[in-house]
Structures
1.
Amino acid sequence: MKSKNGLLLVLLVGALAGLSAFYPKNDWENLLDKDLSKWEMYLSYQHKVGYKGEVPVDADGTPIQPIGYNKNTSNVFSIVEENGEPILRVSGEIYGCVFTKQEFQNYHLKLKVKWGDKKWEPRTNLLKDSGVLYHSIGESGKDYWRAWMLGQEFQIMEGHMGDYWTIASSAIDIRAYLPEGNMNTVASANQPFLPLGKGTERSGYCLRSEDREKPHGEWNEIELICFGDKSLHIVNGQVVMVLQNSRYVENGQTIPLTKGKLQLQSEAAEVFYKDVKIKNLPELPKQYAAYFTK
């Protein structure tokens, strides 16, 4: 009997340890250090103008393999220091990402981001682009650009910080209205939740409610609140996107998407990230829960 209880205790502790891997600490946990010790990386291709989503091929028509995991070709990801503080520089030259080794669920994420000056094909004549991808699961290279895991995107783009994109087969419902063209959010309880993404009639893109981005060269504070199937995109203190019913579609089945890794994109633009911190949310704070009531 004693040995059985001991075995049960070991199994219970093991189960709790496995579960806790999905939860950040109650206090703010710094995710960024000079060695990128809490992150891995993936690089796909240096895409060209006219890319149509296919696997690139060489002159003989043979498929080109992606660069792959943890091969920092062309030093796409590097740590620079400012006043002794580590800052992640993403050159953008090759499409890909850094992603956390750990998965997270029910959390408040904070980080600061600002643009560099460089741009690369196929976006040399387009807005600078990056993104924070959350609830990221599975293998990398599952999206149109063959660079990222399936997940939800907090868009980081010039003039569009806080927009939403689906990645691969993800879907979500957003409190928004439908003008001509893309959906716009209003971050208000006066609007319905509209579904978009895989398995819906709408494309997986939605504009934030307002532009809160600071001028070029200044740091922007980005916050992401995730609890259960709900999330909020916050830019420089302002809620600009209210989302719920996070999910993805696989083999025709709809599956909840409420936990996963974080990805920071390399997407043809130079961008800098710092002060990347996360903490556990035991419940959705009242000021944020109010956005989901009618």
2.
Amino acid sequence: MISVKENLHHTAFRAMNTDIEVAYFNDSERFDLEDQVRDWFEFVEERFSRFRPQSELSYLNRSAGRICMVSETMLEVLRLADSYRARTDGMFNPLILKALRAAGYDATFDQVRQRPGYRSTSEPDSISMDGAWELDPAMKSVRLPLQAEIDLGGIVKGWAVSRLARWMREAWAVPCGMVNAGGDLAVWGASPRNKEQSWLIGIQNPWNPGEDAGVLHLKEGAAATSSTLGRQWLTQNSVMHHLIDPRTMSPSRSDVVQCTVAGSDAVECEIWAKTICIAGLEHGLSLFRAEAAGCEALLFLRDGRTHFIGANASPAVRWQLPTATLRH
């Protein structure tokens, strides 16, 4: 939940299989950016949607094993993904599309959740993630491992948010705004009438989705939330979700069920929120402390406990948390 400041233009729509919300200060001389915003998210889907047969990502997956020329946009995201795969000790790895399908996530989540009854799944042991893609930035080419398929849903939302926010600030001279794609968000600027006002970001209670478990006061920066409880579906094996553990090629069974990360960049926040959910408390926090300087995180554990990690010293970020939260 986001408290939208007064005098902001606001638009909300559905794209990228999630809810998009954009708000920005709109003085009398500034044109309406809604068409440009919608066009941007349509462009992102044309490049990266695994549910569109003609997207660039679908073409790349069909070309696995062969050298494939890619767009500057695809190259940028793949290079980011490579970097975060190394920084997260492989906990973030896009080579999981076959595992997602095997778990039952073979259509958009809106379609999956509307299916009646149980859905069959493949055995996780039949899925392999051997090898890594080969990137050639100079040639603007990539070669996926033979028979491999990638899903970039774990990075593209944050990237799309970050890019759009930057364009709105720099190219369109928007002094104050917010871009939110399904909980991956970026905010900047201050209300002309109240320079001290912050964006209020409600952190959903994973055990009671109708309530907030805390509030993040964010003046400048980004935040992202990832959860194993949101995108769930039922199979004959068990309840499944969309966060695949690359060590098992099955939905994660870690002790972390939800994580919110705040920092300066939406991509970094998205990656670390997912990584901590997949890796679990001990390994996830070890990686987070070593590789995510400047970020803070709020974790919800399967046993009902909550943990806060961070200095909580940034003037642009303030957490309003439950008193039971353990701080590290």
3.
Amino acid sequence: MPKAQETLLEINLSALQHNYNHLKSRIQNEAKFLAVVKAYSYGSDPCEIALFLEKLGVDYFAVAYINEGVQLRNAGVTKPILVLHPQTVNFNILMEHYLEPSLYNVKILKEFIEFASAHNLKHYPVHLKFNTGLNRLGFSENDINIITESCMNANSIHVTSMFSHLAASEDLNEKAFSLNQIESFKRISNNVMERLGYKPMLHMCNTSGILNFPEAHFDMVRSGIGLYGFGNSEKENKNFIPIGTLKTIISQIHFLNEGDSLGYNRSFISKSPTKTATLPIGHADGIGRQYGKGKGYVIINNKPAYIIGNVCMDMIMVDITHIDCQEGDEVIVFGPQASAEQLAETAQTISYELITSISQRVKRIFIK
């Protein structure tokens, strides 16, 4: 792997392929595979990642919002793209790029049927989302009558899939809750299919669901964070390889005397002679202020260097008093030596927040 000469995110496509193959090996009943590439593909690069996964054989993609789907289409992605949280104001853009909406309440269902009819669409693919316990988005079981009546009376749409989302599939202490969600989804989907007179695809499992609830793989499974090597549990992490290594370099080294201050608001006061390094990465790049003042750390020459003072917009300073290093040396913010989960824990947050915060001004490079 090349040494960093600037701040960059190194993305290992071989690790991505490993994670995909591992998840595929765990799928039951030849279920289809939907790759979630929302949030800039969890901080990596949605277009490069999606095109690579498409070559590997992924069946479906999912994004959160319509503009994310447009970006994939413009890059040449041809597989179906499910938009998990479409906004009615952008239905025309969704239609132009043949993106498939998740319809999750009666209001958006009726508005999309009205839109599809006004544009003379026939059997446009839609997906019905049901709430079985996450209580975020989704129809309730009480909506079944109006859903089925609306769908049966509209030949402008076709229900391609019905799905729900497990709330705690990574936590086996909540197994009873997850099983109750699965049974609720079975009951709801059977009721809807009986009334529709045909069988849409069913999907419910996220990454943890794939691993922990094979009985709920149904016709398709979904994975986002697992593909990128950031599982929710220690058990999952042993099987996944993180695909991203965030690197930077030492820009300058300073020597502080006892009583010297460092950074904005003099937030660090040296209690003894201290050697510090300034690194070209800051909260504008995704390293939030919560990592400062001795909480977060980076790796320099295989040793931890703690972030001291306040995180600046474009820079952080770290304590290198006990590290043999020089200006220009490579710094690992997270990667195989120190995972994103470990760094996130220092700020009492989760790796998802950290990796999706990496700004687009950080250069991405791809290796195999």
